[in-house]
Design goal:
Blueprint lengths: L37 H13 L3 H14 L4 H13 L3 H14 L4 H13 L3 H14 L4 H13 L3 H14 L4 H13 L3 H14 L4 H13 L3 H14 L4 H11 L7 H17 L19 E7 L6 H12 L5 E7 L6 H7 L4 E4 L5 H10 L4 E4 L9 H4 L6 E4 L14 E4 L15 E4 L22 H5 L3 E4 L8 H13 L4 E5 L10 H9 L8 E4 L4 H6 L6 E3 L8 H8 L4 E4 L8 H8 L6 E2 L2 H13 L1 H16 L6 H30 L1
Helix pairs in contact: 1-2, 2-3, 3-4, 3-5, 4-5, 5-6, 6-7, 7-8, 7-9, 8-9, 9-10, 10-11, 11-12, 11-13, 12-13, 13-14, 15-16, 15-27, 20-25
Length: about 675
């Protein structure tokens, strides 16, 4: 259910080097000689600005424009300082007045664009950045921010053209190469992305963002240890980097050499970092002591309200939530919308884009919306906005669905789970309080209508041999997994393995490398069927060629397991000791397939051989599996929606009880 893509574009936020106020002489005139000269007050303000005395500088600039209301540069300077003070409304007003007085102030246009971008007003930001470039075509910093804004707005082709123009202007600008690499990465052109990042690092070896993004590409390619090295280089450059720390947490959540205790320590360290940059709310417009509560306003924060595993799990659940009890408000942290996005939107009373908003701005928006319970659906995955939760914009905050470990974020009150995925003994591995749902922590939306893409007959009946399948990311197929699979293939010399994933389509994950790696474990090329990324219907139809799915460990499948069950193909999973490592156990237990859950590696091999040897039983299971799982908790959306509603109601009741208890004791 997790994805490898991280937030690759962040607002530049750098002071424009060409800003008029900083190009003037900073020598300070004697205080008693300021007289009534707007230019003198401006010069004094410049010196105070250089000293970091923002309030005093703002006062000087204000005096300058009071003396001369037509002083455009004074408004520019004032707008810049107000922006630095995060007084965005006042800053925007001053900067727009500067443009009104002098439309050729490119710095003012640029600063207006940065404010609009921070507020998520991407159309306005793009317009202002273009205005700045029309006045000053070599205004390099603007190319970066314009590229970011276009990317955030989903205008990828335009972003490409902007960065190509930037590189034509200056091929020795490291950030231009970084941005071009980000665009290649977004389109899964991993080799090209790495080349761009390498060029950026040649120009700037300490480029923090490039080291982080290089780690993301290497992770995507299944080169976990190299990715870890890149993230560690980023942290060596800046130990306070929240993004690099988050990326490392993502890897640690599935790394076999990271114990739950070690992960928890790392998560707490991340939490300390995000807490240091937040000012948590302690009061809300939704008063937890008010007993006259109508439908709970539930905010969902995600960048995956689209054709993504999170979207697949959400769709049927949202359909059955009772609007008299639950009102949904969306906070979308991506710009990638599709047909599933359109279907999901119908279930929300409000749809908000927080793409491009600063953490503070997003938190203030959510706080102002009067949300009772805010739910994070991303954890440390794509487009996550976990630092927003450190601001505590809602009285109750919950981690659910899109991540399988503790977020580490202070103020994240609960994590939704079930007792199979998080046994009582493992509750201590979370900074959040584990809240149990009665049957399962997630419910899958059927990928097709029942009558479409019906399960095919068992292929081994005609083939005369077993075809195992794995549709997992290459990152999950570790050497430990291959060593266990090798024992199965050694015992079944005619068996084949269908390996299908998006990385096989990429040059960096070329077939030759995959064949070579599997051969090292005795699984020779003639036993492998390699297929790259396919449209979803074709991918589902490919299950007709597979008898048994072999799960990966300690990072098992989630979405792929549910899809395989829907297509009549059972998955053999290995139970682990973490929420992530036990998701296969939870799904197969809910589906009534306990005999497909192995306790250790030896048991995994034994069960694979036993199931593969009983073709009749396997064929019978295939014929009945779709109907079997359709009535199970993992596909029973009405039941799951009711369980989720009740959990949210109980969370809010507990919050109300905790707020009213002190006053009750005082009576």
């Amino acid at each position: 259910m997790l994805t490898w893509l991280k937030n690759i574009f962040t607002p530049h936020g750098e002071t424009p080097k060409a800003i008029v106020s900083l190009e003037t002489n900073l020598s300070s005139p004697p205080k008693d000689s300021l007289q009534n000269s707007s230019e003198n007050y401006r010069t004094r303000g410049n010196q105070l600005l250089a000293q970091g005395k923002l309030a005093e500088a703002a006062a000087c600039y204000q005096q300058a424009i009071d003396i001369d209301p037509g002083f455009a540069d004074g408004y520019l300077n004032l707008g810049f300082v107000l922006k630095e003070q995060k007084r965005y409304t006042e800053a925007e007003r001053a900067l727009k007045q500067a443009v009104l007085l002098n439309p050729k102030l490119e710095d003012a246009h640029y600063l207006i664009g940065t404010i609009a971008q921070q507020q998520g007003k991407l159309n306005e930001a793009i317009e202002s950045f273009n205005a700045a470039l029309s006045l000053k075509p070599n205004f390099e910093i603007v190319y970066c921010d314009l590229c970011h804004a276009l990317f955030q707005f989903g205008k990828i082709d335009m972003a490409k053209r902007v960065i190509e123009n930037a590189l034509a202007l200056n091929s020795n600008h490291a950030e231009f190469h970084c941005d071009q690499g980000n665009l290649f990465y977004h389109e899964k052109q991993l080799n090209q992305a790495i080349t761009c990042y390498q060029r950026a690092l040649l120009l700037n070896p300490d480029f923090l963002q490039v080291h982080t993004n290089m780690g993301n590409v290497l992770m995507q390619a299944g080169k976990v240890n190299e990715a870890i090295t890149s993230y560690e280089k980023a942290l060596a450059i800046n130990s306070d980097s929240i993004e690099a720390e988050s990326c490392l947490l993502f890897i640690r959540s599935s790394h076999s050499q990271c114990s739950p205790e070690q992960y928890l320590t790392a998560a707490q360290r991340y939490g300390t970092k995000v807490a240091a940059q937040a000012k948590p709310f302690t009061q809300w417009s939704i008063n937890p002591t008010d007993i006259n509560v109508g439908p709970l306003r539930i905010g969902l924060v995600s960048g995956d309200f689209n054709n993504h595993p999170v979207g697949f799990f959400l769709e049927s659940t949202l359909k059955y939530l009772n609007p008299k009890r639950i009102e949904l408000v969306a906070y979308f942290s991506s710009s990638q919308e599709d047909d599933l996005t359109a279907r999901l939107k119908r279930h929300f009373s409000a749809w908000n884009s927080i793409m491009g908003l600063s953490d503070e701005a997003a938190a203030r928006k959510i706080h102002a919306d009067g949300i009772h319970i805010l739910i994070d659906l991303a954890g440390h995955t794509t487009f996550n906005r976990l630092p927003v939760f450190a601001w505590k914009p809602a009285p109750v905050q919950v981690s659910w669905l899109g991540y399988f470990a503790s977020t580490g974020v202070p103020g994240m009150d609960y994590l939704l789970a079930d007792q199979t995925s998080v046994p009582e003994s493992q509750r201590r591995h979370f900074t959040e309080q584990v809240w149990y749902l009665p049957a399962t922590r997630m419910c899958f939306t059927p990928p097709t209508p029942i009558e479409k893409l019906l399960p095919a007959p068992l292929p081994s009946i005609n083939n005369g041999y077993i075809t195992f399948g794995c549709f997992q990311n290459l990152t999950k197929i570790t050497d430990a997994v291959l060593s266990v699979w090798a024992r199965i293939f050694q015992a079944l010399p005619q068996a084949k393995l269908r390996l299908q994933n998006k990385q096989i389509s990429n040059a960096i994950g070329s077939r030759e490398n995959i064949l070579r790696r599997f051969s090292q474990f005795g699984i020779t090329p003639e036993r492998l069927i390699l297929e790259g990324l396919r449209p979803r219907d074709e991918y589902l139809a490919a299950h007709a060629e597979v008898d048994i799915i072999l799960d990966t460990f300690p990072y098992p499948g989630g979405t792929t397991t549910c899809e395989a069950l829907w297509m009549g193909v059972p998955t053999l999973t290995l139970a682990g000791d973490s929420l992530l490592a036990r998701q296969g156990v939870s799904l197969l237990s809910s589906a009534g397939l306990a005999d497909w859950i192995a306790n250790d590696e030896n048991d995994y091999v034994a069960r694979a051989l036993a199931h593969a040897s009983d073709i009749n039983k396997l064929a019978q299971l295939r014929a009945e599996l779709r109907q079997k799982v359709l009535t199970s908790p993992i596909f029973d959306a009405p039941r799951f929606a009711l369980d989720l509603e009740q959990a949210l109601q109980n969370m809010w009741q507990r919050k109300m009880d905790s707020e009213t208890a002190p006053s009750s004791r005082n009576e």
